[in-house]
Amino acid sequence: MSRFGALALAVTVSCACAAENDVLQSLRIGQHTFKVEVAATSQQRERGLMGRTRLPENGGMLFVFDTTRRHCFWMRNTPLPLSIAFIDEAGRISNIANMQPHTDTLHCPTIAIRYALEVSQGKFAQRDIIAGDQVDGLPQ
């Protein structure tokens, strides 16, 4: 491989890694801890978990919104089946939905929310996390 080819490969690999958010936030729901990426800018929220093929066992993505309202989600260009917990401003889960890969089906909270937490599908159910549970460690 030429030096130019090796450099191009290195740049491509580092760009792919940079697409994932390096800042991890620890969240606690009951006795369960999640280490999640934070999507706090409009660009990060729009990108979400698009293109990802795996998540760490206790990983996911926390969406933080500037305004509290009924923010809806879809799974366009997202190959992973995900579960999403919609979380109000006080940190209480309003509802949880399962989302199928590569769909434009809208998944909406039942009330106005400030946060949404996406994890691998079934992870909330496996841990008996339900609507009404408190999420601790949310950024303000």
TrEMBL record:
Entries under Gene3D superfamilies matching the protein: Protein of unknown function DUF192
Signal peptide: 1-18
Entry keyword annotation includes Transferase: no
Key words of the record: Signal
Keyword Disulfide bond applies: no
A matching Pfam family: DUF192
Protein name: DUF192 domain-containing protein
Organism: Sulfuriferula multivorans
Lineage: Bacteria, Pseudomonadati, Pseudomonadota, Betaproteobacteria, Nitrosomonadales
